[in-house]
Write a structure and sequence with these properties.
Blueprint: H1 2-21, H2 31-34, E1 36-45, H3 48-53, E2 61-66, E3 72-80, E4 83-93, E5 99-103, E6 110-118, E7 123-132, E8 135-144, H4 151-163, E9 171-173
Antiparallel strand pairs: 1-2, 1-8, 1-9, 2-3, 3-4, 4-5, 5-6, 6-7, 7-8
Subunit structure: Monomer.
Organism: Nyctibius grandis
Catalytic activity: prostaglandin H2 = prostaglandin D2
Amino acid sequence: MHATLLGVLGLALLGALHAQDSIPVQTDFQQDKLTGRWYSIGLASNSNWFKEKKHLMKMCTTDISATADGNLQVTSTYPKGDQCEKKNSLYTKTEQPGRFSYTSPRWGSNHDIYVVETDYKEYALVATHITKSTGSYTMVLLYSRTKSLSPERLERFSQFSKEQGLMDEEILILPQT
C-alpha cells in the first residue's frame, strides 16, 4: 500500500515536472525589450478563481520595469467595481532567460512564469504554472501594446492555451475598459 502511494505520488510529480518542461520560452529573450506598458487582451486558466470571476473580468494594463538586480517589477492596474486596483509583483529571474518565479504573499502560491513568445512591439504570450496547497493550475496571458490585436494573434493565444490542456470555456478574450 505504501509503495503504491509513493509510486502514484512519484508519477504525479513527474507529470508536473514534464508539464513545466513542455512550456517553451522565447528564443534569444531580451528582457529590456519586454519593459513598458502592456494591455491584457486574453486570459485562460483552469483555476477555480478564474471560473468564479470570469464573467467580471475586463482588460487591464500591466507596466513592466527592470530592477537593478535584473528582476522584473510588474504592476497591473485593473477595474474593480467603479474603481481601479493595483497589484505589484516582483518576478525573480531564473537561470533560463525568459523564465521567472514569483511567490504570492497573499495566497502562498508559487508561480513559474514563461515568456513563451513575443515580438516586443505588438504582443507577448506568457504562460504561468501555479502551485499551491490546493493543487496546481495553468494560466496563459496574451498581452498587447495596444487595446486590440489581429485575429491571427488571438487564434495563436487560443491554440497555445489548448496545447496547455485548457478548454474553450477556460479561454477568455477580455472586454476593453
